[in-house]
Amino acid sequence: MFYKIVTAQAPVNIAVIKYWGKAVEHLKIPINDSISGTLSTSELSTTTSAALSHEFEDDKFWLNGTEQQLDDLSPARRLLEEIRLLSKNETNLNISHYKIHIVSVNNFPTAAGLASSAAGYACLAFVLGHLYGITELRRLSTLARKGSGSACRSLFGGFVQWHRGEDSESSIAEQVVDEKHWPKMRVVICVVNDSKKDVSSSIGMARSVATSKLLALRSKYIVPDRVNRIKEAIFNRDFEEFAELTMQDSNQFHAVCLDTWPPIFYLNDVSRAIINLCSRVNDYYGKKRVAYTFDAGPNACLYVLDDFVDTFISLITEFFPEPQANKLDVRGLAYKKSNTTELVSHLKLKNIDSLPNSLKYIINTSIGRGPKLCESPIASEHLSICKSTVS
Ligand code: DP6
């Protein structure tokens, strides 16, 4: 029988001003602030359950049904031990001696290369914190950060700033606006057909810090101003400014990757075709209708306002069709196919070509809330189902 069990769900976040580079490697203190949008958990989330029992002989951790090593060097082990120590010193729960079983599952394919580690470590910190009596979000944010830097932003909904800070306590995320502030904002994710193994974010950013002069300039002279300007754009719901800064920052992050020695390539031909398409679409309308951003991989995250989502997804399905079914799999929020004939002929005149079979699927989602606890019946069911998949 369980002595205590907690389950929670946490969101993915997509940066619009990127975190790239650590000032203190082992504590994951970044070289600059970053800003992100938190995505709705309906389409992308991690659910984690953690249970204590005197019947458990060891600490154990399953991720998507596969048991993970909880050795001393693993971030999950370090997170667990840090929270146990805090619980021992700061609460009178007296439960740090119980062994723990943790199960964590993503509601989206992990292989798709979406930001699963941010949701994963945010969820782990949130669940362990609530299990061991440490519930202040600011502290959970610093704890999640040590698992994976960008995870600290997934502790909050809406738009979020990660303050670089001076030390481990002050390097912390804070909500800029909540998820209700800009209800028209949508996020369309194009999952690119690509099976190549990329350079991981941690390795890539360490290499950039060591070799890219552009990164040093960016973090010191460019990001601080962009952070202030994009926050202002978010407060004012100014899509024009928001979109321009988002695209410029994504471009600069990938320019840093190219400036890294040896260089790193996260974008591929499909990513570049999407960038080109977005630029032409914005030109056609004479204003920003879509903002692209790319993380450490070829998948495109497109910030779009709700009145343009149907047209934009219709356009993507037109240019990146799945030839067999002659349509592309669109997941998440409903969309209505709309007439794009005029826009398509304009783009074709501008030499934008179609790239059949280059996208796996599209996710149509919105800005959402931070982590939340789930009801206890779900918790025990979750734990037993997730464990039984492997035993
Ligand atoms: C490109 O948070 O995955 O997505 O701190 O080493 O775990 P570690 O890196 P991670 O890096 C994310 C980098 C990024 C940009 C961003 O999310 O801000």
Short key terms for the protein model shown above:
alpha+beta; 6-stranded mixed sheet; 5-stranded mixed sheet; 23% strand; binds ligand DP6
What's the quick description here?
By secondary structure, the protein is α+β, with helices and mostly antiparallel strands. It has ten helices and 17 strands. Helix 1 (75-90) runs parallel beside helix 2, helix 2 (116-132) packs across helix 3 and helix 5 (213-235) packs antiparallel against helix 6.
Number of strands: 17
> What oligomeric state do the depicted chains represent?
single chain
Order of helices and strands: EEEEEEEEHEHHEEEHHHHEEHEHEEH
Secondary structure category? alpha+beta
Regions with little confidence, pLDDT below 50 for 5+ residues: none
Task: Supply the number of helical segments.
Answer: 10
Q: Kindly state the mean pLDDT as a whole number? A: 92
Major sheet attributes? 6 strands, mixed
Shape: globular
Helix percentage: 25-40%
In what order do the strands lie side by side in the largest sheet? 8-7-9-6-1-17
* Ends distance: 18 Å
Radius of gyration: 21 Å
Small molecules (ligands, ions, cofactors) in the structure: ligand DP6
The percent range for strand residues is: 15-25%
Question: How is the topology of this model organized?
Answer:
Blueprint lengths: L3 E8 L1 E5 L4 E3 L4 E2 L3 E5 L6 E9 L6 E4 L2 E3 L6 H16 L8 E8 L9 H17 L4 H11 L11 E5 L8 E6 L7 E8 L8 H11 L1 H23 L3 H21 L9 H17 L4 E4 L6 E6 H14 L10 E3 L8 H9 L9 E8 L5 E2 L2 H13 L3
Parallel strand pairs: 7-9, 15-16
Antiparallel strand pairs: 1-6, 1-17, 2-5, 3-4, 5-10, 6-9, 7-8, 10-11, 12-14, 12-16, 13-14
The site of ligand DP6 has 14 residues, from helix 4.
